[in-house]
Amino acid sequence: MNWINSVVRPKIRSILRKKDLPDNLWVKDPETGQMIYYKDLEANQFVVPGSNYHWRMTASARLKFLFDNAEYENLPLPEVPLDPLKFRDERRYTDRLKDARSKTGLPDAVLAGAGRLDGQRIVAAVQDFDFLGGSLGTAAGEAVITAMRAAVKRETPFILFAASGGARMQEGILSLMQMPRTTVAVQELREARLPYVVVLTHPTTGGVTASYAMLGDIQIAEPGALIGFAGPRVIEQTIREQLPNGFQRAEYLYDHGMVDMVVHRHALRGTLARICHLLTHRLPGREVALSEPIDGRVALNGPKSMITLDGKGFEAVLDEDDDDQGLTGSAGNGANPNPPQGT
Fold first, then answer.
1. Helix axes 59-66, 265-279, angle to 10 degrees
2. Which of residues 283 and 185 earns the better pLDDT score?
């Protein structure tokens, strides 16, 4: 009996027992409740096929989808003090950092890389929301500044994917000081007359929107992204009024002139490539001429487009023979199909 209990029965149970499945094999659509196979979601650039919901992406996945052939150079980022304030709440700050690094495989919330986009050299930085909510700490601030200065040194456009819950409370004033420091780095890009394009993803809130995330020459938002300083619930509790439907969402901000474009993720790479070519006068097969500075709101639609470069408005005149209708002329390129009329 001992042989049967100790050998035969465990073998039978191991055969009948179901294999353990990974936790993320299936994911649930937050909008419809539909279950989606993770591999299918990944192949679709983390966009839910039915509802078009834009799932959050990791920093490494962002860079792979952005650069040609998913090839890029990881930029070395400076090391900073791990726990400058020796902070502790329910847990030690060092323990939280250790868990976040184990979960994401990143040293901190920002990953930067250099490579080619449609053949053109660019530098890009991505905030990963999975790393402590993409919070802006000393390491993240240094990463953004280092990436911007790398773009200045290499004389390339700089693209930033923003996703953050705000400043990192565990670093106190040192975290808040990253807001003016990154703003100075943005000014260095402008003085070098290099394009700075910001892609606002879900969510982008807090001190990040009060600094470098809202200072781009071109502001792009992904559909449905929450963008703002304080959250809607906090604002409602403060002003004691109900907010409009879709308040602080990408489409609402576009309608009110806070962002230049709302672009579907499937069209985002092509749109970024066209913007970088246009702003650096390297668009293949087109003649781009800059006229005198003119006043008006930034509008990127039609054969004549207003662009912002070095704080001034210029009229970019494309070749008359070009059949393309500009960067946001139609819904086919993922932009808002009904851009606001007028200036």
1. 60
2. 185
